[in-house]
Write a structure and sequence with these properties.
This protein is of the alpha+beta class. It is built from 4 helices and 14 strands.
Length: 343
């Protein structure tokens, strides 16, 4: 029998170093090409989920309106309760009152609305209860904040990345708007910017929108500009933290836990979850004092845009580059402005 010689047997040669480097380079190139597409797809999914959150919040508000004949108040006073005085916290407001209207009644039932003093309010059982619809999936920080210290420790608790529209000064350059609440708050948004018992008046307003009283809010028939052309609620979180005082510098920055609606610091309370629209979405702004939270801009972690739900329940994206005057026209309920689209 003829045998092959050892020299004639086929050999199996491995990859050379150069070939391995070429293969690695090809794989790295493919990853580099695919990774942005994967990130884009993930952000699209997060944006879709955020849009659904806003739709659910919008439904909650409209269900509340159907039951109460008005949108919820930005803040409401609970009278005859523990610690009900200047400096007391407020829990009844926009985002707490709508909970039973979009299947979150179990969290609502945990809230202790009758405990408002500094010693009792912040021990609320609902403080750390995350409401899934209140957090945008693109928000990169903890859903429950535990990091705030000192004077800002009240910021600890389950967060919310949305806020209601409290109107705008129209025109934007006007220092004394034609329709005010009290002395300095616009009275032309879907939600009131001040607490109960403050008369709307001044300029051409003449009190036409009525007195803000306990437990009342904007009526839909007051939305003269059209429910599809008026902001209800939008995203409120900031990509870059503002230059601000001490403890307020760290995350969550200018956000507040959802269960606190505000603080009765003075005759006109601080309202945490309703904003006046003085700046375009995601505008950079310095906050160098303890107050000044209401005029801070709406914003999001979505690239180049912020999502809003309109009073009719539809969800719309708003570009960071929107013209400020157009943006503010959509923030008012009764300006009679001619606007076609959010461009």
């Amino acid at each position: 029998m003829l045998r092959r010689s050892i020299a004639s047997r086929p050999t199996h040669r491995g990859f050379t170093l150069v070939e391995l480097l070429v293969v690695i380079a090809i794989i790295a190139t493919l990853i580099g090409l695919l990774l942005p597409a994967v990130q884009t797809a993930r952000e699209a999914a997060r944006r879709s989920a955020c849009s659904n959150n806003l739709k659910q919040i919008g439904i909650g508000n409209l269900m509340y309106e159907s039951a109460k004949r008005s949108l919820p108040p930005g803040i409401a006073r609970t009278t005859g309760t523990t610690g009900d005085s200047a400096g007391a916290w407020r829990k009844q407001g926009l985002f707490s009152l709508i909970l039973p209207f979009f299947e979150e009644k179990q969290i609502y039932d945990q809230m202790q609305f009758d405990k408002l003093s500094a010693a009792t309010a912040l021990n609320d059982p609902a403080r750390n209860q995350v409401v899934t619809s209140y957090i945008c999936p693109s928000y990169p920080h903890p859903k429950v904040n535990t990091a705030s210290t000192g004077a800002a420790s009240y910021e600890n608790g389950a967060q919310i990345t949305y806020a209601g529209c409290g109107g705008a000064y129209m025109p934007a350059t006007e220092s004394a708007p034609p329709c005010l609440i009290g002395s300095s708050y616009p009275d032309n948004g879907a939600f009131y910017l001040v607490g109960p018992g403050t008369q709307a008046g001044g300029g051409s307003c003449g009190g036409a929108l009525g007195t803000v009283t306990t437990g009342t809010g904007r009526k839909l028939q007051q939305v003269k500009d059209g429910t599809s052309k008026t902001f209800m609620i939008g995203e409120y979180c900031h990509r870059d933290y503002f230059t601000q005082r001490g403890e307020w510098q760290a995350p969550p920055g200018n956000m507040r836990p959802w269960f606190l609606s505000g603080n009765q610091a003075t005759q006109v309370p601080e309202i945490y979850h309703v904003k006046e629209f003085e700046l375009a979405p995601n505008a950079r702004q310095t906050r160098s004092n303890a107050g000044g939270i209401n005029p801070l801009p709406m914003g999001s972690y979505h690239p180049d845009l912020t999502l809003f739900v309109m009073v009719d329940g539809s969800v719309r994206p708003v570009s960071d580059t929107i013209e400020l005057l157009v943006y503010q026209k959509f923030a008012t309920v009764n300006g009679s402005e001619a606007v076609n689209d959010l461009q």
